[in-house]
Amino acid sequence: MMRRLGLFLTIAAGTALAGEQEIGLTLGAISTPDRTITGGNIRLSAGTALQANYARRFLRLHFADLLGEVHFLASPQQQVSSAVTAVTRDIAVLYVTPGIRVKLLPEKKFSPWVAGGGGYALYEQSTSTIAGAVNSAPRHVSGGALQFGVGADYKILAHISLRGELRDFYTVSPKFNVPVSGSGQFNLVAGGGIVLRFGR
Predict the structure, then answer these.
(1) How many CB atoms lie within 10 A of CB 57?
(2) Contacts for 107 with CB less than 8 Å, ≥ 6 apart
(3) CA–CA gap between residue 100 and residue 87 (Å, rounded)
């Protein structure tokens, strides 16, 4: 009995590992709605979004693939502007969000998809305020992140596709050195790039 169970688990693991895998590399822009503070608003500039995505197919249906994915996003700087000059001058961003992706028409040239997941967000605040004074806000703050996305892959070669995507991240709020309204922050990211596929 144990031998049969061991054989079954070995076959199941081998089948799971044999699923098609993807590595996506995209470049885009992150934008954040204005945040409300006492005496005015905080406005964040658009920032460069460097993204990497690893995915593995774990189920193939007639019209769709189900994939587990891990999405990485880093943005080195978003400038902060406000009439209240005690506000943090700029922030940097890192998100890591595992999740699930549903890819429609995977055997076609054009394959739209939707994705969702949750994970970790890290913000790094500047050491100075807009006014140039020492920023008393903590240097780093971390917490949870939820992520939802839509996109499409366009196959140009057997194992290479172009990708366009739009993802929305709801995360813990950065520390702006002043109280802000709301407990979290929405961050919209649009990007495009390339996908490499391997395995079957």
Answers:
(1) 21
(2) none
(3) 37
3-state class (DSSP) for residue 141: strand
> How far apart, in whole angstroms, are the C-alpha atoms of residue 200 and residue 197?
9
Joined together, the tokens standing for residue 60 give: 């193939």
CB atoms inside a 10 Å sphere around CB 139: 11
CB of 195 within 8 A of CB of 161? yes
Ordered by where they begin, the domains of the chain are 21-198 (2.40.160.20)
pTM more than 0.90: no
CA distance 9 to 82: 58
Q: Of 156, 58, 142, which Cα lies nearest the Cα of 92?
A: 142
The answer to whether 183 and 173 are in contact (CB under 8 A) is: yes
What tens-digit pLDDT sequence spans the chain (200 residues)? 445 434 433 433 444 445 899 999 999 999 999 999 998 999 999 999 999 999 999 999 989 999 999 999 999 999 999 999 999 999 999 999 999 999 999 999 999 999 999 999 999 999 999 999 999 999 999 999 999 999 999 999 999 999 999 999 999 999 999 999 988 999 999 999 999 999 86
Please give the full DSSP string across 108-131, using - where no structure is assigned: SSEEEEEEEEEEEEEEEE-SBBTT
Instruction: Extract the tokens encoding 86.
Output: 């005690």
